[in-house]
Amino acid sequence: MNRRDLLQSTIALAGVAACARSVSAATGAAASTDATTEFPADFLWGAATAAYQIEGAWKEDGRGESVWDRFAHTPGKVLNGDTGDVACDSYHRYKDDVALLKQLNLKTYRYSIAWPRVQPSGKGPANAKGLDYYKRLTDAVLEAGIRPIPTLYHWDLPQTLEDAGGWPNRDTAERFAEYTQIVAHALSDRVNQWLIFNEPKTFTGVGYWQGRHAPGRKEPLQFVRATHTVNLAQGMAFRALKAQRASLEIGSAFDVSPMFPATSSYADLAAAERWHKFQNLWFVHTAQHGRYPDGVLPPHQQDELLGFRDGDDKIMRADLDFIGLNYYAPFIVRYAPEGNGVPGLDLQGKWADAPGEQPRTDIGWEIFPEGFYDIVTRMSRETGNLPIEITENGASYNTPPDAHGQIHDAARIDYLRSHLTELSHAIRDGARVRAYHCWSLMDNFEWAYGYSQRFGLVHVDFANKQKRTVKDSGAWYAKVAAANRVL
Ligand code: FCB
Fold this sequence. Notes:
By secondary structure, the chain is an alpha/beta fold. It has helices at residues 3-14, 17-27, 51-54, 67-72, 90-103, 115-118, 128-143, 159-163, 171-187, 200-209, 220-244, 266-279, 285-289, 302-306, 312-316, 369-382, 410-428, 472-483, and strands spanning 44-48, 108-110, 147-148, 151-153, 193-198, 249-255, 259-261, 323-326, 331-335, 347-351, 388-392, 433-439, 458-461, 467-470. Bound molecules: beta-D-fucopyranose.
């Protein structure tokens, strides 16, 4: 039975009208089979990267230490002891990388700004050399006829701020607003679209709850606090950008997944809906409505758990102009009376990366293109049909070069084709998706996996002078971008 069928039969068994409504929303049950794959005329095709994953130059031009420098330099944290010290050396090769974007016919580039390059210790005056780098990069992107869309925070918190408590410390929101002001002042004359955070659920959850990412803490209570600081910071950064120029368009990149109940029991179904609110809505519902989604944390404990103060509703409120969505794989959720460490949350959500019958990419993540349709249409409905940009979607395949140095990564083409087809259907059915950024432009440092997982459209030979080679998937994607349809 496939996942959608399982959900439908669950609804039938549960026989609860209210749940049936929300689950049919989750499954996108109305999806038709029409194979139209044409995209809107003004649709933007692009690629995404992030500072720590590609830049290298970790100590250059006054850059400060980030939590990822500290984490990667700590033995045992990242596979094979890999670090982002050199990465793709894009700090020095950014012109070549922009040329690659152009060669691939791309019209939008999502990159990120490293906070410790701009404010080495997370507070105080700007480091002019760091800002200059982002000015040069942005100008190169514009000169290539490509739209820049920078992310202000793709996980590189200055280590000094982590030493002061990190994201669980409320003061980090003030620091982030100050940093945002500096960057907005420097770049808002040339950048119109901005993303505040990348994947707030992941850097709080994996960084402070599961400890598999920097700063490597396993503290469920501190994790919950961190989510609130991030929500405050998002509202404050939104206002700092708008104060610079009211016409700037501002969103964040939220990683979202359809949530599937582990079994057809009503308890699992309810757990999946609760997990949806916690994982998919926790940072967007708050911005749009100034309050947390109901039914996640126990109401009598919620304020205390979050450290919520009077007036915080106004601080976290931000009328986002659009939302960014990252999609990779679904979650499997089950009711778990033993809980998961967060008080009152008696469920367990599992990222679909365990061995099983479903097809998987090389990193082990389940391939489920229908889930892309489901979650894009659901998020569209639940955010009031805001414009959407796909800020990430892609696959790790470690296809090696052949004897001629060519990379025949047919599996990545299949992955992209099936996901883009679902996306075109979501657009046809009313989701206002205006851009797609493939993760990633090139192979890079994949966080705790180091260099062992390759997500690029372009191959990087890290051992051989950083040689870049466009893969078959890159050539195919360039044609898709030019044709504005799935091929
Ligand atoms: C996302 C991250 C991105 C990249 C992809 C594979 O969670 O935002 O930096 O690592 O996963």
